[in-house]
Amino acid sequence: MRFFVVCPGGLEVPLAQELASIAQRPDCKALGAWVIDPTPTSPTGGVGLAAPLSAAMALNLHSRIASRVLLQMADAPYRQEEDLYKLASGLAWEEWFSSKQTLRVDVTAHRSPLKSLNFATLKIKDAIVDRLRDVTGDRPSIDTAFPDVRVQAHLTATHVTIYLDTSGEALFKRGWRDEKGDAPLKENLAAGILSITGWKPSQTLFDPMCGSGTFLIEAAQMALAIPSGAIRAGMYGDDAKPSRLAYRPLITSAHGFGFQRLKPFSEATEQKRWIDLKEAVLSEMLEKRKQFPDAESLGISGGDINEKLVAMFKGNWQRAQLPGLPVTRQIDALASKPPANARDGVMLLNPPYGERLVLKGGRGQERDADHDEYGEAEEPEDRFAYNLETGRQSAKRSSRESLKKLQAQEEQDPRFVEFLRQFGQHLKEAFSGWNVFVLTADMALPGQLRIKESKRTPLFNGPLECRLFKFEMHQKRDAAPDLK
Predict the structure, then answer these.
(1) Region of 45 on the Ramachandran plot (φ > 0 left; ψ -120 to 50 alpha; else beta)
(2) Which pLDDT tens digit goes with each residue over 109-143?
(3) pTM for the structure as a whole
């Protein structure tokens, strides 16, 4: 079978490395041969591979970087909408799902000659519905919000590829976050960034602006061998129910992934393989818990100036089935210090961006709760204060033009510039010897921090073009001895 594993733009190389690692797992090798396509040299939005049908289960369970796992149903040339209908109607959809299940069809395109994607979508949807009606005597209903089955098609200038989505809800929805609104930093992007940093569980990881803990929770689950799909796979039973707003309200552990609503995966042989995959994971998790029995032993910690976000981080940590409570506290980033007994320190942070910074001279400090995760902001006391007004009121995050205008305003605000200068100086003084990684849409950040970056990696946070800057904080030289 052919698959296309979708990922955020810029994470194709880490995804290819992750897929190779998954394919080498003994339980995944037992499914059959995997052949991963060559690593893309330019952004493609994903990586293709050939693997047994059962690989869909392993990919959805294990991939931290994937957004979706798409199973290719057909690929053919086309010239007009009627060609799409003929191709889709010729596929045996009745072997994959029933007319009693709900359906959604999505179409994307790159340089397609067709005038209307909506009409192309309609033709593919009609083809599937007509096929099922002809074969079964009934037609499926359309549900664009929470469908049982998702079909995707991609149009190039000459070819159309039709896929079945084996993921269902996007894979960044792990089930542990108590969501509220749209998150600008998704879990799979955080996992991909961790891969780029080269962080290993043997190293200390610290986030001084941790929000509700996306980077730190992803890292902790990696250290403890907890797969990204553990909750959705029902591996914790009733002990870990998905957050109310994590994904489909009526979703259950029996249908946590799209493939679980497709006929071939309900067969006894596939069910047995699914059980074997989960049992192999549980064995690894038990061994890792012996190595890292509590949160302190992980060497993963963070802080945030917003007390409510710190509380949210603790709740998310527990829902993610991590041990105890996270090592975190409410603190201004300018007052943060390296954790005790730091080992090859790595700092990773996603400071607020895409919002207007309004610095306040008086008492009070507020950090936008939505910059990283969810919730309403509040104003705890602190010595250095800046207030984040969400840019949603004046411009959508997805508008790059608006973002550039907001960044220009921020760069002109002398108090904002002073904050960045102070933070850069704090990094030099308190975190010498550390590697610091900062994800931001502000391309001028290194100059504002007054630190020369050693590497910059282009990434896309949704539609926003960002950079992951790496700063090497060199060790301070000892003062020359007094020879007098």
Answers:
(1) left
(2) 999 999 999 999 999 999 999 999 999 999 999 99
(3) 0.85
